Description:
Layout: E1 27-33, E2 40-46, E3 52-57, H1 76-97
Antiparallel strand pairs: 1-2, 2-3
Region (Disordered): 95-133
Amino acid sequence: QSSARxxxxxxxxxxxxxxxxxxxxxxxxxAVQKQPQQSDLLALLSxxxxxxxxxxVLMTAYVPPEPESGLFEPFKYPSLLLAVLLALSLYxxxxxxxxxxxxxxxxxxxxxxxxxxxxxxVPKKFEPxxxxx
Length: 133
């Protein structure tokens, strides 16, 4: 494929690459030459020893990155959990301290000394209605 026939922005092999359906003859020996930052080369020696075929391997294998193993890696998730728990406890403290304290006249007991029903610090309109027995 010549560069004149390429579409704009298309990248590909040059003229010296041959695409063919391979009907391989038997191979006596083969070798691989690895090249860093380039495609690997594969050399095949025919069974009669007269022909050497060199193939450029254009595919690259995906190598996943190694997991991080720093000094603080074992503490990452426990510290994240601690931060979430701290944020939730601060939120609970802020919401509970902003509610009005009950006055001393309504201490939660009736004149007979028995405890009245109700939730401390919650306005009466939000208390559930429970039938008295």
